[in-house]
Here is the input.
Amino acid sequence: MEVGVNYFKVRWKDCGGARGVALLSVMLAVLAGCGSGDSGEGTPAPVASAAGTVTGQVVSLANNTPVNGATVRTDSGTTTTASNGQFTVPAPAGDRTIVRVEANGFAEAFPIARVLSGQTTTLGVKLVPIGVTESVSVASGGTVAVPNSPARIVIPANGLVPVTGGAPVGSVNVTVTPINPAQEPSVMPGGFNGVPSGGGSTQPLESGGAMQLDIRDSAGTRYDLAQGQTATIRIPLATQSPNPPATMPLWYFDETEGVWREEGTATLQGTGSNRFYEGTVARVVYWNADLVFDSIVVNGCVKDDNGQPVANAWVQTEGIDYTGVAYDSTAADGTFSVAMRRNSRAKLG
Here is the structure.
């Protein structure tokens, strides 16, 4: 289902239970209406602070083959995938439950699941193969670049320290993996939500490309940039927008909270298929070139084939001419409110 919206707020009231199409400046694909209230505003159904279950399959983004032996963790439990990539793990209930998935040869993934108390949520996970891993001297620093990609990091001399403290070893393994959310939005860690540098509530984001950085020594100890040190990174341009901006804020992924946080700025450089956003960073984590997009709200309702409202349905918009995803769950009366970028097109599912 495709939705096009211009400068107004869409509100679907009672449609007599029939599916149809409304014309409001542009054509809107409309779900069946519910209820007869004036607002049509969807309020997420309450979720108890208990536990549920997440089950699913982990596959490689490269060829969709199952990933055996991947570690799947939530705040409630840990498991490993079977030979067919399938897993089942307990998880805390919530609208944004973080699931951490790690496997040899792949960038660590942080998909989001909506988990209901006492119920099972199905989650498909696609892992992005690592772009490149190279050994770098801590004393001299160096540049690590992904073959056939603009993605790279320039590490300063004596700029790395173990996360756990202590003296660094002589050399470390630097991993760089570009992420293309325009090609596959589900691989974006934590989804498309971020906290601006000034703080406040999370905002919907539009991505221009992302990249994971991971640095460890031979013992598996993680490394970060030392206090006061920065590295220069290049994030390959990956967007569905026909006119990417010349500058983009940089955002790092907060693994604990499962949300992006604004820190720094990157500029668009390069030509043709080798364009990239370049900026300096002070953390070894996932980085993303993002904009907070000007959003409107699509209000609607979900009914089943018998005309009855469907509660706890997962409703999502996915940008067509921008790279971003937003979602909501239906209330007891089947209503929802989900964001999309103003003056844009999106798929509604």
Q: What stands out?
A: The two ends are 6 Å apart (CA to CA). The first strand starts at residue 2 and ends at 5. The CA atoms of residues 213 and 285 lie 5 Å apart. Confidence is low (pLDDT under 50) at residues 4-33, 36-48.
